[in-house]
Amino acid sequence: MLKQGQLCRRCAAHDRRARTASTRLTSSGHRYTGNPPVTDMSPAKADIDVFFVIADPTRRAILDRLRAGPAPVNEIAADFSQSRPAISKHLRVLKASRLVTEEKVGRERLYTLRPAPLQKAMAWLEGYRAFWGRNLESLKRYLEDT
What is the maximum alpha-carbon separation in the chain? Predict the structure, then answer.
């Protein structure tokens, strides 16, 4: 096992240019390089952060497309200028966040919208809708009085 600050041969080869004083090792002994990529959406992480999933305009457009009904990946990809593998990656993130389900029908996989996880986001947004409604009504009364 490597000690704190030591690098295995593989990591040392990649780390020659940028060694830092705060080098940490993972449980397997490899150098910890920082945050995971933003495309890493484990199901546990996705439950917490639905806003991350719907922040991407392509994923929002896919959700809008799926409101019309279930569709296979080729049909969804035909609506976009992105490649089919790129759309498949977006669908994997949506599936991991439980916003869509995947069902195998024959040789195709149909994707279906599951809007239940969006209810958490809607509940959070509803508080702000009420807040802004009250404040804008107060502003309107103030402007009318002056």
Answer: 75
Read off the pTM: 0.60
Residue 26, token pair as written in the block: 């993972």
The DSSP annotation for 42-84 comes to -HHHHHH-HHHHHHSHHHHHHHHHHTT--EEHHHHHHTSSS-H
Q: What is the pLDDT of residue 22?
A: 44
* pLDDT score of 110: 95
Q: Are both 49 and 78 inside the same structural domain?
A: yes
Instruction: Examine the domain organization and report whether 48 and 104 are in the same domain.
Output: yes
Helix, strand, or coil (residue 31): strand
Domain hosting residue 5, numbered range? 1-34
Task: Clarify whether residues 58 and 94 are in a common domain.
Answer: yes
Q: Are 137 and 145 in contact (CB under 8 A)?
A: no
Number of domains in the chain: 3
